[in-house]
Amino acid sequence: MVQFLRFAGIRAALGFLTLCLVSFIVFSLMELVPGDCAERYLAFKNSQGAQISIADIEAERVRLGLDRPFFERWGKWIFNAFQGEFGDSCILRLNINQLLGQKVWLSIGICLGSLFLAYAIAIPVGIVAATSRNPFLNNSLRLVSYLGLALPNFLLALMIMLFSTVMFGNSLTGLFSPEYRDAPWDAAKIKDFLGHVWLPVFILGWSATAFAIQTVRALMSDEISKLYVTAASARGVSGRRLLMRYPARHALSPIINSLGFDLNRIFNELPIVALILTLTEAGSLLIEALARSNDQQLAGAIIFFLTGSIVAINFVTDIALAIFDPRIRRSILG
Amino acid sequence: MTETNIYDAAVDQSAKDAYFTASQGQLIWTRFKKQKAAMVGAWVLVILILSGLFAPFLTPYDPTIAGRDKDYLNGAPTIPQFCDDNGCSLRPFVYAIERERSAATNFRWVTTVNTEERRYVQFFVEGSEYKLFFITFNTHLFGIENGYVHLFGTDSTGKDIFSRTFHAINTSLAVGTIGVFIAFVLALVIGGISGFYGGWVDSFIQMVTDAVRTIPAIPLFMALAAFIPDTWSAEERFFFISIILGFIGWPTLARRVRTHLLTERNQEYVLAAQLCGASSGHVIRKHLLPSFTSYIIVDLVISFPYMVLSETALSFIGLGLKDPVNSLGVMLQNVTSADVLLNYQWYFIPVIFFIILVMAFVFVGDGLRDAADPYGDTKK
């Protein structure tokens, strides 16, 4: 038990370190961008008719702490970030937590939903594909997974919009019906939400599913031809019992391991799909933050959130593997 | 032993000789040829690349605002036909298109198709000037003498979608090539240092690589792309986007290079070369690099479609390329409006070409991966 806790502790520390490193990369990239918060704010004031001088910009810089050395500002930013405090948005002059609010959790929830959907489809289908000798089934699955690569999620979203507009005269966009948009959460709103959310979940899960089917299939076909499977079937284990007890369990650990990267892939698609389907969560907020107002603070916070949830997923999968895979459990517990 | 048997044996022997003396490239090519899907993909790819390269010749009009048909905005495709109510002709023709505004049309611009007036399709017509391999031409493969022919229709400014599609293929291939090249150089240097030195250098570089891999690349680079000043020219944006794509692609490739170097540098043949007194540079050039060139090529081909698609995604949301550069993303920029979805579905024709392009790359990449695997034959 002590060893297990130590393992978990080391993993958590590594995750923390990764997050620090990531925040450093993100923070310095945001620094590279020309112009800073003080200039933007005052440029905005200038457009409102106020007279702004160089001295004003300098004063604003001091007020915002932008005159401090780079590492000090990074340290402060990361220290606040871990406390869940990201400061004010540069342009909108609003607290970032207030802006993001439930949007972040909504979008992370949608992404996790798509990840879950992807594997709920991919694991059974992949196992069947690996064991079946039916050429028609195999070829059509191959085609689907190639399409998953070639038709990226945002093009799929466009095609679905085109199709539904032409066929039903309704483009299926948005997350809520207009009357529920600002309503508090209750049963009716949740029902309305579920009626809308299936489409983004499906679209975001689409290429993840295609990838996952390929992975599951490859892993299963590798394991099935191994000697221990032959040995087990020689002992009289057969059918589903044989598959589930031996090769499926072996193939599971690499899959659990790759969950973090699948989530990464889904996050990559999120902003663009969100834009097409006019969803109002973090993804499209990110685009808005960038396209309209060049808002470094907000963009940094969103990327930090996304990366943080990937690091968290990686941590959880590491712990889950240590619990469920006896080989890793043995190596930890000695 | 009969004559034929001896002959067969001789053929068999020469086939074996050819097999055992074949270079690695020849072996890969032999295995690649056996795969039908990959061969079809390769042909499609060659055709698409050629049509991208020769886009200005193959398409009738300039894809920028200079080549617009100002009398046919948001126009439906005009398909050349051979027959109509007035009889058939051997030479395909399109109908004349007239645009008028008068009391009869309530003073709005109305476009009508005049089915009485035929305009015949001509080949090798003179048209707008273009540069191909630094020489200026003005001959286009086809066109019509009066007016315009729009195989895929026109967009809201009257630009020919057929011409834009072919130029877009060219742009996507160029962006992809530069992006893949940058990713390749970065991966080779970073992965090479990491794998060749090993030890703490390796651990440190791997930690950084893993951290970079954790960041969702597209949102991050969207953040960077958003800060491109509006004053940049189309060419500057083009190179900036290519560079960004290169920076997205390197970590996976670097990891593969590093893993491969780590296993290879402890092999006996490297030790043998070192014992013979070969320098590090010689070992890397003559022994280590050839041992994984085929893997690298395969990885490059496989990562190519991701570059193309990332560019499309970035341009689509308006953070990538912009007019007058044509790319699929640029062409799709305004298609989510209800107007386009309901009335102008020909805006989506280029998508088909891009799906075919990406599919061709995926098939060729898969085929190459199987062909480059020296143990692929023995497994089956």
Descriptive key words:
heterodimer, A: mainly alpha, 79% helix, 0% strand, B: alpha+beta, 14 helices, 13% strand
**Hey, which two chains have the biggest interface?**
A-B, 53 and 43 residues
Distance between the termini of chain B: 33 Å
Structural class by helix and strand composition of chain B:
alpha+beta
Output the radius of gyration of chain A: 24 Å
* Adjacency order of strands in the biggest sheet of chain B: 1-2-3-4
Query: Which outline of chain A best applies?
Result: globular
Write down the secondary-structure element order of chain A: HHHHHHHHHHHHHHH
Radius of gyration of chain B: 27 Å
Count up the helices of chain B. 14
Q: Give the overall average pLDDT of chain A.
A: 75
Percent helix range of chain A:
over 70%
Explain how this protein is built:
- The complex is a heterodimer of chains A (334) and B (380).
- Chain A has helices at 2-32, 37-47, 54-64, 70-82, 96-131, 135-150, 153-168, 187-224, 227-234, 239-245, 247-257, 259-276, 282-291, 296-324, 326-333.
- By secondary structure, chain A is mostly helical.
- The longest helix of chain A has 38 residues, at 187-224.
- Chain A is globular and about 85 Å long.
- Chain B is of the alpha+beta class and 380 residues long.
- Chain B has helices spanning 3-21, 24-33, 36-53, 55-58, 161-197, 199-214, 217-225, 234-264, 268-275, 280-316, 328-331, 338-343, 349-372, 376-379; strands at residues 81-84, 87-100, 110-132, 135-144.
- In chain B, helix 3 crosses helix 13 (349-372) and helix 6 packs across helix 8 (234-264).
- In chain B, 36% of the residues are buried.
- At the A-B interface, helix 1, helix 6, helix 7, helix 12 and helix 13 of A face helix 6, helix 7, helix 10, helix 12 and helix 13 of B.
